Amino acid sequence: MIVGERLTDFVNAQDRGLPADLEALYQEAQRTDVPVIRRETQSLLRFLLAEKKPEKILEVGTAIGFSALFMSSILPASRITTIENYEKRIHVARENFRRFQKQEQITLIEGDAEEVLPTLPDAGYEFIFMDAAKGQYIHFLPQIKRLLSPGGLLVSDNVLQEGEIIESRFAVTRRNRTIHARMREYLSALMKDEALVSTILTVGDGVALTIKKEGAFL
Q1: Highest-pLDDT range among 29-38, 138-147, 175-184
Q2: What stretches of 55-206 adopt beta strand conformation (E)?
Q3: What is the rounded CA–CA span in Å between residue 144 and residue 59?
Q4: Domain locations in the chain?
Q5: Disulfide check for 66: which of 17, 36, 89, 214 has CB 3.0–4.6 Å away?
């Protein structure tokens, strides 16, 4: 946790909470150790979606479908496309979409995002939520920039790696060094790209917000 636990608990206590059915799914994910967006990230997403009101949303990393369902509950008229590569979670996500009667609003594409993203339309999404394998963000970025509409918002979750991002690569466990290096490269690319405007927030496990400049076609 990047921000102190007591402060995070206080902030989360001010949140309006989830509808009962989504809360039940959230609790189910907690019990089964399935990673879903944290309470504070939910609050940020709720605000951003309410402000942006995107008609078309792309999510990279479906897991069990919680975040797609969460976004659909805020904007029931929006169309959401979500990509997932892990077969066991694909089945669960599809079941959850049926259970919540969201099959018409949410389209789940099975496959490796690196292969799926090039098949999607240029500048087709006003809002993109990146919550996939952290070491792949940098590889997805060229396609994400192409898919994001001018003025569109990219939200990248879990970018600070529980605070490890500030450590030397030698202070990070060997198995995490590649992810550590790639995430640093990703954040640097976001911040230095002249076609983008980005900021990094210490919300949850770190969230990067990126706007594609008007007139920028990538």
Answers
A1: 138-147
A2: 56-60, 79-84, 106-110, 125-130, 148-157, 196-201
A3: 11
A4: 5-212
A5: 36
Q: Is the pLDDT of residue 87 over 80?
A: yes
Label residue 98 left, alpha or beta by phi (over 0 means left) and psi (-120 to 50 means alpha): alpha
| CATH code given to domain 5-212 | 3.40.50.150
Regarding pTM above 0.90, the answer is: yes
Alpha carbons 54 and 128: distance in angstroms, whole number: 10
Distance, CA of 210 to CA of 153 (rounded, Å): 6
pLDDT range class, residue 172, cuts 50, 70, 90 = low
Per-residue tokens: 14: 């001010």
pLDDT on residue 214 = 83
Contact residues for 83 (Cβ-Cβ < 8 A; gap 6+):
58, 59, 60, 61, 62, 108, 109, 111, 113, 116, 117, 132
Cβ pair 71, 81 in contact under 8 A = no
Residue pointed to by tokens 């995430």: 183
> What token pair was written down for 15?
């949140």
